[in-house]
Automatic annotation (TrEMBL):
Organism ancestry: Bacteria, Bacillati, Bacillota, Bacilli, Bacillales
Sequence intervals crossing the membrane: none
Gene3D superfamilies: 3.30.420.40
Protein name: Actin homologue MreB-like C-terminal domain-containing protein
Domain Actin homologue MreB-like C-terminal, first and last residues per copy: 79-200
Origin superkingdom: Bacteria
InterPro entries the UniProt entry points to: ATPase_NBD (IPR043129), MreB-like_C (IPR049067)
Length: 236
């Protein structure tokens, strides 16, 4: 069970499915089972539109045996999926993707992290990596010495994240203007947590509301939806 963006789903799903079916040898790299090899046989594969999986996850309970939000079975629902290098904004109507209403941005959170890293490296003459920046964002340690001098990354982070948040909210506002039946937009993906405050600030300027995931990891929403879809289809 896997997914594709709505923009690729209709045209590429069969080709993607056929690529997955077959026999594979997997070698583990983690220390506990390093170099262990297993054979994986995929006899069949199912491809689900990304966004549909998010709505399915929010609709079904944690065991996929009942509904926790039955209202999501009907109506227009939007999803803002902020990935590393793309941001997909699918619109789901009565459980099915609406390709005409769905939009996307050819940038994700990693593009803006790289801009921040580039600014830091050029300003201070260092070689900070994206992963080092992510680590500091996760811990909140944005004021620290660089080459023995105090530095604060908060201003450049706020600047870049606000630019990205403004672009996202502007597109969502445009979608809502043309497809006003959309009830809500769920914010998911790897950039959901990082951009929450900046998206909120832009939302307030436009007097619109987005739905942030509080009870689960927003980055796992599609994956949880795939699991629930598989559980309903195959049981277990």
């Amino acid at each position: 069970m896997c997914g594709l963006p709505i923009s690729e789903y209709t045209q590429d799903r069969e080709r993607y499915r056929e690529k997955l079916i077959g026999e594979y040898e997997v070698e583990f790299q983690s220390e506990t089972i390093k170099n262990r090899r297993v054979k994986v046989i995929i006899k069949d594969a199912y491809v689900v539109p990304e966004g549909v999986a998010v709505v399915l996850n929010r609709m079904l309970n944690e065991t996929a045996t009942g509904l926790r939000n039955p209202s999501l079975r009907q109506g227009h629902i939007g999803v803002i999926d902020i990935g590393a290098f793309t941001t997909d904004i699918p619109v789901i109507v009565n459980g099915k993707p609406d390709s005409d209403a769905s939009e996307g941005i050819a940038e994700g959170i990693a593009n803006y992290l790289d801009k921040i890293v580039r600014h830091v490296n050029e300003t201070y003459g260092v070689n900070m990596s994206r992963s080092q920046l992510v680590g500091r964002l996760e811990t909140g340690e944005l004021e620290f010495p660089i080459k023995g001098k105090p530095a604060n990354l908060r201003p450049i982070i706020d600047e870049q994240f606000q630019i990205f948040a403004r672009r996202i909210v502007s597109l969502v506002d445009s979608i809502w203007e043309n497809h006003f039946e959309i009830r809500e937009f769920f914010v998911v993906g790897g950039g959901a947590k990082a951009l929450k405050d900046h998206l909120t600030a832009e939302m307030e300027k436009r007097n619109i509301h987005l739905t942030f995931i509080q009870d689960e990891d927003p980055q796992m929403q599609n994956a949880l939806g795939y699991w629930k879809y598989a559980k309903q289809k195959f049981g277990g």
